[in-house]
Structures are given as structure tokens and as C-alpha cells.
Write a structure and sequence with these properties.
Layout lengths: L8 H20 L2 E2 L8 E4 L2 E4 L6 E2 L20 H4 L6 H17 L9 H10 L12 H7 L10 H7 L12 H15 L33 H9 L12 E2 L25 E8 L6 H20 L6 E8 L4 H12 L4 E5 L4 H13 L4 E3 L12 E3 L8 H10 L5 E5 L3 H16 L4 E5 L7 H9 L5 E4 L3 H13 L6 E3 L6 H7 L7 E4 L11 H11 L7 H18 L6 H10 L2 E2 L4 E2 L14 E6 L2 E7 L2 E2 L1
Helix pairs in contact: 1-3, 1-6, 3-5, 8-13, 9-18, 10-11, 12-13, 14-15, 15-16, 18-19
Length: 617
């Protein structure tokens, strides 16, 4: 559907009823279409056809997005798609509302122009419905509710417009004639000749076989690098907040570092929030971040020249989405809290983003490289998941490894970390063996043997630590001797324990600076051990840096009173050298632009740091 004049009201109502009926069937089958737009609607004399289910997903697999890409079409996707939130049937209903506006007026309900602008208006601005016929307004307006719960179901829309979908031609005469004319042209086309293979075209099988998929013309290395690094738009413990006095030592953790919690009366006070999983599946990481942030606060407050006293407020979200939103509400009530760090878990971070946006509270995430959103407050303080793969591409190119097995585990993270590398390698003439070994697969030996039989020069595994450990053992048993490469999720001590001796030699790319291995982090690690009598875990150094970044930005404002509204522009425009990496952000969307991909090799049961951003030490 596209081009031509707007459809009359009756045709639009009939269109709405029949498309809603199609969506009713889709949702009844447990699916979400995710890309309802004019280009995916074919007009027929007997009704419209909803096509292109290429990104349709089951309702229990609700997040399908890719860093640097919006899954869906800007101008017709829902606010929750633009923000990277959970997607369900109401998202398709919102998109249907956009399609009906387009059909009735010839324009998009949130205007046109740059993608960023359209997505921002979709999330924050009311739809432009002034040109919509009054008879369509109530249903379409309900479809375009910002909140999914406020939208009608597909069945509601079908029933509301059912009368116009029955009896007579549903399309105006000119459109009917156009459809008939194009149908006649299609019928007049000659038959397609069958393709035949001559004797010289025999495809080899067995050990010598190769991936013979036709590839596009190589775009060259410069284009590949631009492709991988491009900055396109992305589409609490019972709600309580706890002071960190529990870490003892006779010190007030929010004070100036003196015994008994003395504070410098002349200093104003600023609060920083830390939303972390302290009691759920990521508690080890969350507690390490909590302690590291506390250490940074104490060091700041011990400075005699510090213009203000910092106080750290933490909220335990337990990795739970509702508790995460409760934590944000608690932070928002504190007028002295100017920025927050969090969250430990990806799901908790994603669901809390809207609450942070509503509170206009800047959020700095040192864990989540997956979140794609378009709001005013988010800063991603680590390279995106797909950016991990640039050093991998450089490594494979430097050693002229041609056939590469890219293995994803069927999760969104697995797809992200292999999808862009796949396109880049193919674009540079490499042979890619794209494999999916789903998370939790029991017989990994059979999968490893199947992949090794294809003779890859290297294997890149894009899944989590547990299956990576099992897969490492399976690759060894299958006799694979080439390079084995894991991504961020494999940078976990539990991978070493799961894989045992078969982890030896694995290369791991990560956005976390390992305190035990990266030299620049060693002074921090020593201070952490002295303060807490334990070694800092992964991602602790990044939390320490986040406090330093926020404090430096607040100090740089040179004001006696600092508000959260003051903080966001300076956070997004500041370059900061931390102990783990350098930090810089895209001012328009808060995405990380600095360097910061670390390369490790597993040796003697440990991750040994060997380089950064493709450069070996």
C-alpha cells in the first residue's frame, strides 16, 4: 500500500477492520508482527494482505532489537519499540493506527524528517490527527495511546469497523482499476525457465565442501569499518533505599571520610544513586559495583579542595523490573540526587528507563550495552554489543582466516554479537558459516562435530558463559584446533570453571576492564582490597569511574547549587579518563563513543589481558 491519493473514509474503515482481523489471527497464534506499515500491506480486490513476517516473534520472546538499528519502521512503530521495551500485541495495534492515518490523510501521524526526530515525536509528542475524518478519530486516537494498556485490541478494532468491511467493493474505482491492470500485466509475463546445472557445476560434498551462498560485491574495508562503528539511531528491595553504612569501618559512607561521619559544614551536598542487583542473580556484580562506588565517594570526600560532599544512595532491585521502577521513583523524590548509576541487569535497566525519563534523572549504565532507546536521560558508558566485534574482524583479517563459523545461541545477545560481524565479513569476501546452537542444547557434541566437519578456520561463539563452557569442551572432543573466540558474556570466571582445561587458548573480547589483569586498574584494585579485604569483581572499576565522571561534571559546572537538569548536557559533552577506559558520548543520544574493547587470552585458568581495541600490549 503506498502512493496515490488518500483513501475515502469507508475504505479506510474497511481496511482497518480487515487488517485487524489479520492481526487477531497473528496474536491468537502467539505472535507479534512487529512491522505493520504501508509497505507490508498489499491491496487486493477481495481485501488487503498483511505480508513480511520476517521479524515476527513469539510473545514469550519479546525483545527483538539490534544495536544501531530499529527493528520496525520509523513513523509506524510504537513508543515501546523506539525505547527498546517489551513488545506485545498492543505494539502492532499502535502501528495499525499509524497505517490508518497514512491511508486516510497521506501523511504520517508523527511527521517526517530525520529518523531521530520521528522516533522522538513517537515517544513524547501527540499524534497529528487534524486531517483525519471525524468518523475515524475515536478508534485511531485510542490505537495511538502512548501506553499499551490504553489501546484497543485487534478484535475491538475489527468490531468497530466491521460494517464497512462487508458488501460491495471496499476500494474506490480508480484503485480497483489500477489493481486489475497490474494483475493483467503479471499474468502476461512469460514463465520462468528452470535452472539447470551442467557437468562442470557439480557441488562438492564432504570435508572439502564450502559455503557457496552468493555474496554481494565486497564493499571494501573502509565501508566495513563504517558499518560496524556507525552511529545510527537506536530505536529495589521492596522499593526501599538504603544508606551504605553497612560497610562499617566506623565511617559514614556518605560523609567526608572522617571518623564518626563528620561533614564539612561549608560544603554543599550532592547525592548519586546506585541501582543495583544486590540480592538476585547478579548480586556478585552488583555488590562489587556498590563497594567500588562507595570507595570513589570516600576518596572524593577526603579531598580538602572538593567543592561539595558526595553521598551515595543505593537501591537493591534484585534484578526485578518492578523493583527497578520503584527504585527510580525513590531516587526521583530526593531533590539532591543529580544522577544515577545502574542497573546491574539488562531487563531491569530497560524497564526502568521510562521512569528515569519521566523523572528527568540522568542514568549512566556501565553494564548494559544492549539498551537502545530514544530518551533524554540515558548514557551508555561502554561500547555497544556489536562494537565488541571490531577487534575480532581485525584479528581474522590480520591472520587471513577465511572460513569463519559464527555461532549464536538463539538469544538476542547472540544475534547482536554475530549479526554485524557476519555482514562485515561477507562484505569483505570472507566465507561465513552462520550457525545457531540454541541456548540449553543438550547434545553439544553433535553440534560441535557438525560445525567442525565444515572445516572452519576459526569459531566465534556469541552466547553466554555456561553454554560456552560446555561448547569449549565439545569443540576439543571434536578435534578443533583453530582459534576459538568468545564475547563479553564469556568474560566470566564461571566460564573458566565450566570449560576447565578446554578454556585454554580461547580469545575473549570484552568491554570490562579486568581488575586482576589490566594494568591501569591495578591501583584501584589495591585500594579496593585494602578497603573491603577482597578482590574487586568485573565491572567494579567501571562503577568507580562512573562516580568519578559524575563528580567531575558537577564540579566542572562551577556552581554552588547543581540540579539534575544541569547534569545531562555536561555529562554528554564531557570526555573523562577513568581507571578502566576513556569515556565520551554522542551528545544527541548518549551512546558511548570512546575506546574500550579489551582482549584477553585464557592462560592457566585465568583471563590474561593481551590488548585493547585490536592492539596487543
Amino acid at each position: 500500500m503506498g502512493g496515490g491519493a488518500p483513501l475515502p473514509e469507508r475504505s479506510v474503515r474497511a481496511l482497518g477492520s480487515m487488517l485487524a482481523e489479520a492481526l487477531e489471527a497473528v496474536h491468537g497464534a502467539g505472535l507479534v508482527h512487529r512491522d505493520v506499515k504501508p509497505g507490508n500491506v498489499l491491496l487486493g480486490l477481495d481485501g488487503p494482505r498483511l505480508i513480511d513476517f520476517g521479524i515476527a516473534r513469539a510473545l514469550d520472546d519479546t525483545v527483538l532489537t539490534a544495536t544501531d538499528a530499529i527493528v520496525g519502521s520509523p513513523g509506524f512503530l510504537s513508543p515501546e519499540q523506539a525505547q527498546g521495551r517489551r513488545i506485545g500485541p498492543p505494539s502492532d495495534v499502535f502501528s495499525l493506527g499509524c497505517v490508518l492515518v497514512y491511508a486516510a490523510t497521506g501523511g504520517r501521524p508523527f511527521g517526517s524528517g530525520p529518523v531521530e526526530a520521528m522516533l522522538f515525536r513517537t515517544v513524547h509528542d501527540p499524534a497529528e490527527l487534524g486531517a483525519l475524518p471525524p468518523g475515524l478519530l475515536p478508534v485511531v486516537e485510542a490505537c495511538l495511546s502512548k501506553e499499551p494498556a490504553g489501546r484497543p485490541t485487534a478484535g475491538d478494532i475489527r468490531r468497530a469497523f466491521a460494517e464497512d468491511a462487508s458488501g460491495g467493493s471496499w476500494l474506490p474505482g480508480p484503485v480497483t482499476h489500477l489493481i486489475a491492470e497490474r494483475s493483467a500485466r503479471m499474468l502476461a509475463l512469460p514463465d520462468i525457465e528452470a535452472t539447470s546445472l551442467d557437468a562442470g557445476s557439480t557441488v562438492e560434498t564432504g570435508a572439502a565442501s564450502r559455503d557457496t551462498t552468493a555474496l554481494p560485491a565486497p564493499p571494501g574495508r573502509r565501508r566495513f569499518l563504517a558499518y560496524v562503528t556507525g552511529g545510527a539511531v537506536l530505536a529495589a528491595a521492596g522499593g526501599t533505599t538504603a544508606w551504605l553504612a553497612a560497610f562499617g569501618g566506623g565511617k559514614d559512607p556518605g560523609g567526608d571520610g572522617k571518623e564518626g561521619g563528620e561533614t564539612a559544614a561549608a560544603r554543599p551536598e550532592l547525592h548519586i544513586g546506585l541501582q543495583a542487583d544486590l540480592s538476585g542473580p547478579s548480586a556478585a556484580t552488583g555488590k562489587g559495583q556498590e563497594r567500588a562506588a562507595l570507595l570513589a565517594v570516600e576518596e572524593h570526600n577526603a579531598r580538602k579542595d572538593a567543592p561539595f560532599t558526595l553521598r551515595l544512595t543505593t537501591a537493591d532491585d534484585g534484578g526485578d523490573e518492578e523493583r527497578a521502577k520503584a527504585a527510580v521513583r525513590r531516587f526521583a523524590e530526593d531533590p539532591l540526587l543529580v544522577a544515577a548509576i545502574g542497573a546491574t541487569g539488562t531487563d531491569a535497566a530497560r524497564e526502568a528507563l521510562v521512569a528515569y525519563d519521566e523523572a528527568a534523572l540522568p542514568l549512566l549504565s556501565v553494564v548494559d550495552g544492549d539498551t537502545r532507546n530514544l530518551n533524554r536521560i540515558f548514557l551508555c558508558a561502554r561500547p555497544r554489543n556489536d562494537m565488541q566485534m571490531l577487534p575480532v574482524a581485525q584479528f581474522l583479517g590480520a591472520y587471513e582466516i577465511d572460513a569463519v563459523a559464527l555461532v549464536d545461541d538463539g538469544t538476542e545477545y547472540g544475534r547482536q554479537t554475530t549479526r554485524f560481524l557476519d555482514a562485515g565479513l561477507r562484505g569483505n569476501g570472507r566465507t561465513v558459516l552462520a550457525e545457531t546452537v540454541r541456548e540449553g542444547t543438550r547434545d553439544l557434541d553433535a553440534e560441535a562435530e557438525r560445525i567442525v566437519a565444515k572445516k572452519p578456520g576459526a569459531v566465534v561463539y556469541g552466547g553466554g558463559w555456561r553454554d560456552a563452557g560446555r561448547f569449549a569442551r565439545a569443540l576439543t572432543r571434536a578435534g578443533f584446533l583453530g582459534p576459538k573466540i568468545g564475547t563479553q558474556a564469556v568474560h566470566d570466571p564461571r566460564f573458566l570453571a565450566e570449560a576447565g582445561e578446554d578454556a585454554a587458548g580461547w580469545l575473549v573480547v570484552s568491554t570490562a576492564a579486568d581488575p586482576a589483569s589490566v594494568p591501569s586498574v591495578h591501583p584501584f584494585a589495591a585500594g579496593y582490597r585494602k578497603r573491603f579485604d577482597s578482590a574487586p569483581p568485573l565491572l567494579a572499576a567501571e562503577a568507580y569511574d562512573a562516580v568519578g565522571l559524575i563528580a567531575a561534571c558537577a564540579e566542572g559546572l562551577g556552581r554552588e547549587t547543581v540540579t539534575r537538569q544541569d547534569m545531562l548536557p555536561v555529562l554528554r559533552s564531557t570526555r573523562y579518563k577513568g581507571v578502566s577506559k576513556s569515556y565520551a558520548f554522542e551528545p544527541a543520544n548518549g551512546m558511548y563513543t570512546g575506546t574500550g574493547v579489551f582482549i584477553y587470552r585464557v592462560e592457566r585458568g585465568r583471563f590474561r589481558y593481551i590488548g585493547m581495541d585490536g592492539r596487543e600490549v
